[in-house]
Amino acid sequence: MSESYVFYQGKVVKEDEVKISVRSKAFNYGLGVFEGIRAYWDEENEQLYGFKMKEHYKRLKQSAKTVNLNFDLTIDQLIQGTVELLKKNNCRQTTYIRPIVYNDAPDISPALDKPDVKVVIYTQPLNKYAGKPELSVGVTSWRRLTDNQLPPRTKATAAYLNSALAALETKQAGFDEAIFLTDANHVCEGSGENVFLYKKGKLITPPPSDNILEGITRDLVMKLAKEELGIEVVERSVARTELYAADEVFFSGTAMEVTPIVAVDHRTVGTGHEGELCKKIKELFFDITIGRNPKYADSCTPVYEESKAF
Ligand code: PMP
């Protein structure tokens, strides 16, 4: 296996040079925030595109600020470091990029006022995440964290125990994924993705005030529906059984991309197969990820200087 590199404290270094102590607050208390970014491989032009990197690093900085994990790297430096890392790891397939900002102080207490903040980024190949093209999901009995407990919009490491419990419960019950409700019993999101419903010609998705992570893919899906397909998009609270009665339901997310949901709590959604709207959004989405749509060219950061496209 070829050597793996990571971006650590501002430099690309060999992965095995980075050690995390068993005493680290990140390990003991989950004091960290992170991102999930994709870089898409365009086979035809032999080019890799970092997708929406600026938006992801902006969200990382915002998450870090909210929980007092302050660090100096700018968004441009994070993007440059990621490009350098992708090249160094010779990534020539669709790749997942995982930046983590964490508190590495070794003393015992879950304190966020210690200055020992570190930034690491690693990469791994990731083609399809969902495992299947159409999903059957279940509403979990675990409720989504609220903004005043552990703000879901910070993409905090610790928040993913909430996600993992929901995913475990629904997988053990035979579903592919979970959908969370909020404390007020509104539909929230999946364990790692946002949710959309299509009903009576409108695309509906829960609002940020219902404790969702404000997904970068969610933003793009809303824009595509409005601007490319002329569909009205509504951000509003959604009741559980609206999922059962929708014409279409689908997930959006960096790892999950745009994936149709064909059953919720064993109730068939729409025709029981991927809907037309989801199909159209997926087509638009995948074209954009590999730089094929000039209107959205700024979503893509080319990694290699020499590609057939240039
Ligand atoms: N919700 C949660 C809880 C997530 O972890 C993710 C993945 N980052 C999303 C939604 C989707 O967000 P994005 O489209 O920015 O990946």
Give an account of the 3D structure:
It is a single chain. The protein has about 300 residues and is α+β, with helices and mostly antiparallel strands. The protein has 2 domains: about 120 residues, D-amino Acid Aminotransferase, Chain A, domain 1 (2-Layer Sandwich), CATH 3.30.470; about 140 residues, Alpha-Beta Barrel (D-amino Acid Aminotransferase, Chain A, domain 2), CATH 3.20.10. It has 7 helices and 17 strands. 4'-deoxy-4'-aminopyridoxal-5'-phosphate binds next to α5 and β14.
Count of the separate structural domains: 2
Query: CATH fold name of the largest domain, please?
Result: D-amino Acid Aminotransferase, Chain A, domain 2
As a percent range, the share of helical residues equals: 25-40%
What is the name of the CATH architecture of the largest domain? Alpha-Beta Barrel
User: Quick one: how many beta strands?
Assistant: 17
Bound molecules: 4'-deoxy-4'-aminopyridoxal-5'-phosphate
What proportion strand? Answer: 25-35%
**For the report, how would you describe the main beta sheet?**
9 strands, mixed
Number of helices: 7
Radius of gyration, in Å, reads 20 Å
Principal-axes geometry comes out as: globular
Looking at CATH, the homologous superfamily of the largest domain is: D-amino Acid Aminotransferase, subunit A, domain 2
* Order of secondary-structure elements: EEHEEEHHEEEHEEEEHEHEEEHE
Poorly predicted parts: none
Mean pLDDT: 96
Query: How is the quaternary structure best described?
Result: single chain
Coarse structural class = alpha+beta
CATH class bucket of the largest domain: Alpha Beta
